[in-house]
Amino acid sequence: MPLYHDEDQAMLADTATSFMAEQGNIKDQLRHWRDRDCPDGFGHGLWKQMAEMGFTGMLVGEDDGGLGMGHVEAGIVLEEIGRNLTPSPFLTSSVLAATALKHGSNDLKGRYLPGLIEGESVFAVAIDETAKHRPSRITTRAERSGNGFKLSGSKSFVIQGASADMLVVAARTSGSDDDEDGITLFAVPKDAANMSHNSVRLVDSSMATHTKFDGVDLDGDAVIGEVDGGREVLNAMLTAGRIGAAAEGVGVARGAMDLTVDYLKQRKQFGKLIGEFQALQHRASHLYSEVEIARAAVIKAQQLLDGGSEKAELMSSVAKAKVARTAGLAVKEGVQMHGGIGMTDEYDIGLYMKRDRALQEFLGDAYFHANRVAELNGY
Amino acid sequence: MSDLETFRAETRTWLEANCPAEMRQPVRDEEDVYWGGRRAKFKNDAQKAWFDACLAKGYTVPAWPKEYGGAGLAPAEAKVLRQEMSRISARPPLSSFGIWMLGPALLHFGTEEQKKHFLGQIARGEIRWCQGYSEPGSGSDLVSLQTYGEDKGDHWVVNGQKVWTSYADQADWIFCLVRTDKENKYKGITFMLFDTASEGCSTKPIKLISGNSPFCETFMEDVKVPKSYGEGIPAYVGEINRGWDVAKYLLGHEREMISGADGGNTGTVGSAMSRHVAKSGDELDPVLRAELAMFDVDALAYGAMGEKFLDEIKVGKAHPAQPNMMKYAGTELNKRRHELMMSAGGSRSLEWESEETGGGKPSRNWLRTKANSIEGGTSEVMLNVISKRILDLPGA
């Protein structure tokens, strides 16, 4: 498959580009909700509109009422989300949770997927337990209890945890903390008793929770996939999520770069447009190269995942690490090249820097993924 | 089975039968490759057998039309052949600037007779070509070149000096940019072809920091270049005074080649280097391991870019200035690769003449890569082009 969008995908990209620019733009979404201290950090109205566009259920199979599209298509929407810094539950709900639910029972699918497709429901994923992404270590435990389980432990930095109608929780049902086996994924409903959320606002204005499970009673049918065999589903979910986060990161990088290149063409200093200075031209050109390469890594990863290739895992880490580096460069160069006004809240470039910072940490930063590339390559 | 799958199966069978085991090893240096030419010798029988087999099949230039010595493969078939050759680490049967640079220019700009005449020679490895572009004082700034060809009716008399003429000391013919009109900066250059054994033409190797002399200086004192080598075979490519068009087209190819966009420059180094360090009884320093891992991320991402670039070129989707970006990123990556390989090798890789290092290969190769971001246009020139033609920055 050639590494560019086919005709249908190019059409989707056109649609997504104009939709997100019109409805998901910084002024109407990110700034709007931020300036109102919105406890969700995003607008449900837009989520509903995204459902009407058919975005929310893109990765849900046709048999389950979705569009049965792939990660290239989801990535198209994510890149526009990134470019417009649109706060939205798309990545956690439509990519991560939707991927997990593919492995769920028909009962689970029937309970949750229609709400997702309609844009009525929002899902979160609770994996991390520390400030750095470390999914190899899961200490949250679910003990057998009656016909179901009792969940105890805590999760950190659950994005949109308090707004979610359902949380996909990775818990240990057997073995010790660092074991590969013994993991089970659960779909924990919003109103579960003995679950508490401590909400925190992050640097990018998104909302995350530190969520505690203090003996939460779960039915046996809350299990996604196999008991003790959840690692595979977790890994599938993480790979999809990482590739999705990388696609969003490319959007952030492009958004920051476009803003900066435009600025270079307008701002005058010493009687010249600053874009005439070779020192800045070379840095902008270098950034362009990096962004193009990062985009290529992302589309390669998306195609490998859609094609069911075993190389998707390696490429997901390549993409996530490359994008983290590239978007990081884009926002740093962006703020620097804007000069003093780049430090002001009034200009958008700083918002890109904040979003990039949060996105870099989400599901593993460049260090985590470069280390994983080394491990997968056997060193 | 699709046609392409059939082709792949046939190719595998053919390679199995025709590619000798000795030719299924990565190329370590230039001797491992047959370069052709009047003075060429095969390194061993296997190299000759492999060359002969490929020549008979048209596989020295597989994508060229059959009438010019190629196999007439469609782009998708040529890709399959590349993949299958790379799968068994098959060495190229023939390498030359004729294949990489002059060939594409002739295919695009040449007359029918000219193509038949010169392309056939290139495909058969009969003539080894070198390139006469740069001059002292005009490297990437080719339009400032001074070598002058005075029009004498049926021939020119050429005077001047070329520099960085790669392997000119082993070449038979030169494709050379010569000013034929002093008034017009861009439209006064002609792309000429002539024999370096012509009277007045001499070549001197330049010793480089690597200790090797792949580059030369070529001097032209009253060299007589005919305007034609026969019916329909002009001694120039394209039109007289319009050599700049040919040069620009060809530089695009050169940049793609140097950037390794064809897949030659995408290799990771981490696993090989960690094994290398372990073999020498050392432990891989965690900080070096981290650098290797970061490099591998960049190399794999660049590999995807190379693939995307070639896919886009095929359907005309790539920006025309994209080869500049590939050249910039690819050469910087390759320099970094060799820096890391030197670090991983430690003091052993400093040995300049020992047998263990194959005569100082690690350090000589490392030094050689420093030219990657200079030859074919410097990284800075590439960045200028991106600024101007892609980002549309003012005054760039």
Automatic annotation (TrEMBL), chain A:
Residue intervals of the Acyl-CoA dehydrogenase/oxidase C-terminal domain: 229-375
InterPro entries: Acyl-CoA_Oxase/DH_mid-dom (IPR006091), Acyl-CoA_Oxase/DH_mid-dom_sf (IPR046373), AcylCo_DH-like_C (IPR036250), AcylCo_DH/oxidase_C (IPR009075), AcylCoA_DH/ox_N (IPR013786), AcylCoA_DH/ox_N_sf (IPR037069), AcylCoA_DH/oxidase_NM_dom_sf (IPR009100)
Domain of life: Bacteria
Residue stretches making up the Acyl-CoA dehydrogenase/oxidase N-terminal domain: 7-120
Residues in Acyl-CoA oxidase/dehydrogenase middle domain copies: 139-201
Molecular-function annotations in GO: acyl-CoA dehydrogenase activity; flavin adenine dinucleotide binding
Family annotation (Pfam families): Acyl-CoA_dh_1, Acyl-CoA_dh_M, Acyl-CoA_dh_N
Cofactor list: FAD
Keywords: FAD, Flavoprotein, Oxidoreductase
Family according to the record: Belongs to the acyl-CoA dehydrogenase family.
Protein name, as recorded: Acyl-CoA dehydrogenase
UniProtKB/TrEMBL annotation, chain B:
Name recorded for this polypeptide: Acyl-CoA dehydrogenase
Chain residue ranges for the region called Disordered: 345-365
Domain Acyl-CoA oxidase/dehydrogenase middle: 130-223
Required cofactor(s): FAD
GO molecular function terms attached to this record: flavin adenine dinucleotide binding; oxidoreductase activity, acting on the CH-CH group of donors
Acyl-CoA dehydrogenase/oxidase C-terminal domain segment(s): 241-391
GO cellular component: plasma membrane
Source organism (scientific name): Erythrobacter insulae
Transmembrane segments: none
